[in-house]
Amino acid sequence: MTNGTEKSAAAGADASAASRARAEFARLISYIVFGLGSVYLSVRASALPTSRWEPLGAGSFPKLVFAVLAVLCLISAVRTVIDLRKTGHLSGLGAALAEWLKVRRFAFALFGLLVIYLGVLPYAGFSLATFVFLLITQLMIAGISKKTVIQSLIAALIFSVGLNLLFAEVFNVFLPRGVLFAG
Amino acid sequence: MFRKIAVAAGLMAAAIAGPAQAQDYPTKPIEFIVPWGPGGGSDTQMRLVAQGLAEETGQAVPVINMPGVGGNVGLAEFAKRPADGYTISQIHEGLLISNGTGITDLNWDSFMPIALVTSSPQYLTLSKNDNFSTFEEMVAYAKEHPGAVRAGVTLAGVPHLHMAMIEDAFDIQFSYVGYEGTGQRIRALVGGNIDVAIGDVSSAGQFVENGDLIFAAVGMPERTAEEPDVRTFKELGQDLDLAVTRGVVLPKGTPQDVADALEAHLEKVMQNEDVRTKIKNVGSEPVFLGQDAYKAYLGKLSETVNRLVGKLAG
Amino acid sequence: MLDAFLAGAHQVFAFDTLIYMLIGSVAGIVAAAIPGFTVTMAIILTLPLTFAMDPLQGVSVMLSVYVGGYTGGLISAALLGIPGTPSSVATTFDAYPMARGGEPGRALSLGVWSSFFGTIISTIILIVAAPPLALIAVKLGPWEYFSLIVFALTIVASLVGNSLMRGLIAGVIGLGLATVGPDPMMGRPRLTFDSDILMPGLPFLIVLIGIFAISQLMGEVEDDGKSETKGALIPDVIEFKTWAVMREVLMHPVNLIRSSLIGVFIGALPGAGGSIANLLAYDQAKRSSKTPEEFGKGTPDGVIASEAGNSATAGGGLIPMIALGIPGSAVDAILMAALMVHGISVGPRLIMDNADLAYGMFIAMIVASLMMLVVCVLSMRLFLRVTDIPKQFIVPTVMICCVIGAFALNNRVTDLYLLGAIGLVGYGLKSLDYPLAPLVLGVILGPIAETNLRRALMSDGDWTVFFTRPISAVLLAAALLSVIFSIRSVLKMRKKNRAVTDEQDGD
């Protein structure tokens, strides 16, 4: 083996160790979040009223569950901290987070659109909201060109107005109609 | 799309022209919010009523199941719907109890009761056990051993109210085990995991016929046609009315003429032989009480619930 | 008996009944294949139609929807990695990797044949042993149910993927999520923070769609800079080898029969159903396999176990209904309602009083599974076309279907907000390499465990009853054994892994 390959292999191992450490760090945060959340919910649950009909009240089971969750998160967090201290390097967190977000930009954009869609749905009604949502998401994923615009328009029309008509007329299932067309 | 716009335009025009004339009611489909899940007693019976109403009016009456929190989610949504007669819903004893125990602020008078349409007679049902096999033996045993008789109920639900009524009237005490729904209770009763429960003919009738369970008493003013051998509570010395009654309601503020039109339609539906037979088939009794009679009934029921609700709150 | 059998057969084999059943079968498969749409929904839609049919005809149509629905979930599980129904969660574990590995046709065929055999086996058990099995099922009290759920929870170990600890955390989060909403005993709100959105609780189906479908769809549009991201989801190598795959399925008789039996027993217990059976069957197949490390990478055994297991709950679920008139699930309750409307009382005397109907239902089950098989085999090429559709259409459209399904479940707008929130949580958990199946298992099992624990203690305040009732004690012992077994296999795996990493480090 030449000196050069050895060096790059070592660098690769280094980089993967660093990325593993970063992933572990992200998980550590999740353990802490879940742990604190479960402690809070466990306390909330123990404040629930007891019942005269039964030995276990409404709060007992959730209290138990969230207490177990808190313990599990504590153990995991401690183990992760020990691991991180052993392996050491936690460099470039900010850059890694930026890269992580960049890879997932479409995923988050899609989710953002979904949230807006769900929020608007009860007001704009199913057909209109769905049409706009489908059109935007399709063009976002496929990119804008004459062909994709026409395809997306057709697909969006079928799956918004078409689906709504199918459900309302054939199945008698009424999707949100919205307040724009009072009815 | 065009059709939709046309419909919307039509609606707007109608809205501008003022509320639709009641003698034309209904001029479009009536949505029937059933605040319970599919497959249960309310769902099945209301689907039959809805089908009859659709035949009667010539308009579709789609049933929309909106279950959650003992019927309260659907009713809360229903209360927000426009009071134009094109959304109707259904209530039963459970609403009054939920109100009494503080689970919901809605009560029967938050709506406009139109007609009581079905009434399901409830039977006090005993499991096969060594300690008692008739009503009197059960009462005697329960008096001797307070709290030893295990009763399956939906805690803070209609069966719980019925059991509390029996406790109150015969001065006995049960211990309670919580179940969700009649099917579960009857299963537990057959399996011997509880001793008494409230049952009905559709879920327990065959077990009684088979000798696995015993109908000890029925909570109706008179003996029922299905189980003529089962005595009423009146015959046993206390006049208890243990029925689950289901009625159609409109949102508060609906024009009176629309309400009257719906009442008239429902009256005809409840005379329809096909609807009557099918409702009997699913273990209930088709009845009809119009707006005033239904309101009076609910008012009286409300008194009973308020008197006993302290026994239900946990 | 023969008379009744012939009378039943005569009614089922009427031409119009068969046509309706065919339509029902297609409807069930399609409804289940679309993530978010459920079999229950399809059956509710057929309910009013059956009011106008003969009782047996109506029930036969519903049964064909039912059987089709237990298979349809496989399609999106295999092709999109999204369980089409709650009962096909375990199918995603192996059918999806297999499809992604270039064998989508084989994955589908395996699933279809396993479903077919699972349904047939369960129907045979239904015919032969319904009354005694139903009697056992009905004797089980809250103690046995609780112990059974404790046992079922131990299968989390088989679903954890890379880290046991994160699997456990996910499972417990699932248990915790299920406690939000009305308390199952008293109906009083708990942990809802006075929010209208949380008031009705987190419906299991919303969690399932949010956790699996939304996160998977978001994952589809991640852009890691590699080229093929904008193309089709699956390479277009289409090979079915229908008969070869049938032989392949039959070459795993032990797995097939064990999974079907699990499906039948779980199905026969009111309240449990297909959503647990597929996971339990998968767990058992993995544990008894000689190559457990292949599970999750596209092994045929995983597909067979899950699909045979969930389809067998179809027959299993009918056991308490036909033998005792006790519905085990919402679907059974609707079936019963359809019969009762026609004046047929369903109960322990059904087989005696309406023998032709009972036998007719058995025959209808078999006919329905044959129809399912034929429809699936003929239309598989069509379903595979789904994989040719470019991502820009499939991802948003499937998302819309999820939204419709989530709404149509309870007709509640607030459920949609929950769907969005849970979808984000699911995506976050997935990104952090938490296994998602344990969470869903927790959400399914949590309420059953809690309700039965509380019910047991209401019936008898004595804790020791859990150990003195024989079936309960056996189940608890099985749970203990299962935990010991899991710890052993985790330790073994860890040793193996350490050996591997040591080698790498030494390189």
Automatic annotation (TrEMBL), chain C:
InterPro entries given in the database record: DUF112_TM
Acyltransferase keyword on record: no
Keyword Transmembrane helix attached: yes
Transmembrane segments: 20-47, 59-82, 116-138, 145-161, 197-218, 256-281, 330-351, 357-380, 392-409, 471-491
Domain DUF112 per the UniProt entry, residue ranges: 18-441
Record's signal peptide: none
Keyword line: Membrane, Transmembrane, Transmembrane helix
Name of the protein described by the UniProt record: DUF112 domain-containing protein
